[in-house]
Amino acid sequence: MDIDLLNVKNWIMGAIKRAAARTEINANEVNEAFEIIADLDRAMAGCNFAYASILIPATGLNVNISQAVYDEIQALIYDGRKIAAIKLMRSSSGIGLKNAKDSVEDDRNWDWSRNPPINYANH
Asked: What are phi and psi of 110, to 5 degrees?
């Protein structure tokens, strides 16, 4: 089974942020969550996988997603399936709807020199 640890880590961080926004989280729960993330960081240190850094325009910050997810999102955009691309961006990065939409729509995030995108044949 191939596990994309970067996406797992991003999902966990996003889940923590969403839970914190909805409820009171006690210190033990936060510490436990960050221990899980630290374990993932240690596991990821031994892995060699490609990732892409995506700009979130509103914040000026970047979020990392796997190269495979990047290629899939780019193919969806190329195919005119922007809503599916936004959904995939949200689920793989843990960012919110507005930031995912802005990131998908920002051409600085996509390598259009590969036209069509690398995995477009899968669509």
From this structure: -120, 140
